[in-house]
Amino acid sequence: MKLSVVICTKNEEKNIERCLQAVCSVADEIIIFDSNSTDQTQEICLKFKKVQFYKHEWLGFSQTKNKANELATGDYILSLDADEVLSEEIQDEILILKNKMSALYTINRMTNYCGKWIKHSGWFPDRHVRIFPKVGSRWIGDFVHEKLQNSNHLPIQDLKGVVYHYSVSSLHDHLRKCETYSTLGAKELIRKKKKFLLISAVISPIGRFLRHYVLKRGFLDGSAGFIIACLSSYAVYLKYSKAFKQKRSSVT
User: Fold this and answer.
1) 3-state DSSP of the chain
2) What are the b/e assignments for 2-21, b being 16+ CB within 10 Å?
3) Is 196 left (phi over 0), alpha (psi -120 to 50) or beta?
4) Which listed residue, of 84, 141, 162, 241, carries a Cα 20 to 30 Å from 5's Cα?
5) pLDDT digits (tens, 9 = 90+) for 147-176
6) Conformation bin of residue 136: beta by default, left when phi > 0, alpha when psi is -120 to 50
7) 55: Cβ contacts below 8 Å, ≥ 6 apart
8) pTM
9) CA 83, 68, 102 angle in degrees (round to 5)?
10) 3-class secondary-structure state, position 67
11) Using CA atoms, how far apart are residues 147 and 188, in angstroms rounded to an integer?
12) How confident is the model over 189-206, as pLDDT tens digits?
């Protein structure tokens, strides 16, 4: 059974090489779907023989991933982000599964935050469906939190190993992500016609902090857990306040 690895990229020169090194052992082909990178992403990718490199404008998370999946020729697809690295345990599991895949398979991510592996804070465990058949599978969701649509109604199985997620390298990087994702989240709130946006901008950040730091035991992650809870709370505030401003400006 042929397995295609699909990775969407944009300016991933600091991440993509370690990602590709880890997938070469399991991939029959690697599809890189690049949104006009201006760094060395393409040059690094083309050093790997299994890579097929395509350029295309960014269409949003779901549409971009679906376009990339269309280029795959494998029976099954392994969907990864450029800042993710398969552990050796996951590689071994996939190699055993390759010729008898019959389900959707989830992989658990462990995130590296400014050099520290986060094992609580609502960031771990963090399971996502990442291996699925090409036929009958499609990503859905307009802005954030894209989800795989399982038209084949296949069972879902959990793999044991982890994917290492090199998500946040600095506080500046985290703040940048807060800005980006809160803007997308605000658009989603507007699309869903959410009400009481101003009240939510005050109350929801408090709930988010308590969820990450207390309920999800972020305090066990030390100072990193506290910062994650604070910035997660800040991102929620940004999302609701941006949505409120957009809604108000559209009325006036």
Assistant:
1) CCEEEEEEECCCCCCHHHHHHHHCCCCCEEEEEECCCCCCHHHHHCCCCCEEEEECCCCCHHHHHHHHHHCCCCCEEEEEECCEEECHHHHHHHHHHHHHCCCEEEEEEEEEECCEEECCCCCCCCEEEEEEECCCEEEECCCCCCEEEECCCCCEEEEEEEEEEEEECCHHHHHHHHHHHHHHHHHHHHHCCCCCHHHHHHHHHHHHHHHHHHHCCHHHHHHHHHHHHHHHHHHHHHHHHHHHHHHHHHHC
2) ebbbbbbbebbbebbbebbe
3) left
4) 141
5) 999 888 999 999 999 999 999 999 999 999
6) left
7) 34, 35, 36
8) 0.91
9) 85
10) helix
11) 14
12) 998 899 999 999 999 999
Cβ atoms of 51 and 23 within 8 Å: the answer is no
Closest C-alpha among 48, 238, 157, 2 to residue 230? 238
What are the C-alpha distances in Å from 29 to residues 3, 211, 244?
Answer: 7, 41, 45
Candidate from 100-104, 125-129, 141-145, 240-244 with smallest mean pLDDT: 141-145
Question: CA 186, CA 196: separation in Å to the nearest integer?
Answer: 13
What tokens were used for 87? Answer: 């552990």
Please name every residue paired with 165 in a beta bridge, in sequence order, or none if there are none: 84, 111
Q: Residue 127 is encoded by which pair of tokens? A: 């399971």
